[in-house]
Asparagine synthase (Glutamine-hydrolysing) (Natronobacterium haloterrestre), 573 residues
Amino acid sequence: MNRELFGVFGDREAFDRFRDDDEFDVVLTGSRLTVGIRDPDLGTTGWTDAHGDDAGCCVVWGESYVPDRESNAARWLLERYERDGTTALSTLNGSYLAVLDHEATDEAFVATDPVRSRGCFYTDDPGVRVFGTDAAAVAETVADPTPDRDGVLEFLHLGVALGEKTAIEELRRLPMDGRLTPTAVESLDRFVYRPREDHDHDHDHDHDYVGDLADRLERALERRSKLPGRKGVLLSAGYDSRIILSQVPDLERSYTVGAPDAQEVIGASRLADQYGTAHTAFPPDERYLRPDESKVRYSQGIKESLHIHHAGYADEIDVETMYHGLLCDTFFRGHFTARETVDIAGKPVPLGRLDPDPDPVDTLLEKFGYSREASRELAERTGLDVDPETFVRHAIDDEFASNRSRADGVQNALTCCGIANQPSIPFHDHLSDQFVTSFLATDRELIDWHLRTPPAHRTTETFLRACERLDDDILRHRPPDRPHDTELFNEIEGFVRRKTPFLSSFEPPWPDRETLFERHDFDRRLLGDLEHVHELPARHKLRIVDLRRWFDRWGGPKSRLIPLLRPANPTLA
């Protein structure tokens, strides 16, 4: 990786047991921890900072913004922590990890941002607590690693290992809104739902959720407009990235993966033309799917590399700073909210009303894209002989329960569980290893809007009206599969197009995986020794490849993983 944070809760001698100084740009040592960082953009405005003095040492890793016009976020946090304690972490803004060893308070810890948009992995196996941003690098310190039964099964069936699990038993990751100390893992209270209607009954009906979101979006984008160098955006024809295109004034380039004649590419190109930005469409060749080193390392062995759509084309992206709209649908448009539906030709279509009594497990399985048929076939064809339906339902139920205390009701608990287990985060991990990368949805003010806004108001309509407050021409070009204002009408038109001769159907936004898998002979090239899985869907086969190659990357317990993928093997039972 181009950027890495690695440390130990111990002195410099303990750190040197595992890593060499010359692997890092800076190594800081405090009384209770030692941490090294490698980042070619260290010290760039809005990006990774490090600071050490008599008060201790601190690293703020990733994208960060602080008040008081302080130029170094790490120095700001070290100074502010003595006065404000963990409240200082609530003020720190962005997509980051914070590492702090503070002399006066006698504290040392690693803290995530409120939504864990950057992972931190740790193990106690070497006899000292080791932590870092690269799961493989931390796993290398484990003497005799063992595949984690539940982590492996969750990854293969759901595309994500839930909670704090990883692919090996001895390696864990920090929870959402958590911090790691020398002896404990603690939960913070920065991400707790406090809907406005619960506290401001007299004013709730008068609150302008649209205007409030518009104001916060404007400030969040202004903060991120100051990032340096040539700027680009990963652009879809949908809703979420166009507000960035509209509001960041000096964006020079935009990029989309897709064929030149694809509806998604044509739509993105029109948006780029509207805002005077150069547009590049990368053809969906084998680079789009191929899970090579440029993708698998960022999956961390727990999330699908499939989501890193752009990875194979990174060398052709000519910018220093990159923007994206990841998770805007989750934070502002209610992606995980359960809504009442009506059946149209066998497909449930949301009516726009909240489901008054959702089943959490059923809702989350649908949102995570669980396929009963594919998982059943995977279990039958491999040594993963655990009933997948029983297993995933139990796993989701446990994970929902573990996040329940952060939410006031079931609807917010669903969203909280979804945010805590986003399988798409490798998309951001890869981008931020290649470029200075802005993550709009993690802005502190926008997270606060999400936590204070009732689920009924966190909708696509609210988001679009807020965007129109900033740019009344932002919907000049609608997404190709959403020509109408209401989801119901869009679904009806989609159905009519599918069933009517001579009418073209709406195209999916991403290239077809099955076609590309077959076209580039990936069964033979990637899974030549596992012919019994060749009939599985491409997505599940890619998960198998991800897992095997992640273990290969650091010489992990491959000998114990391969039997799990063989047919009729009871190893994981």
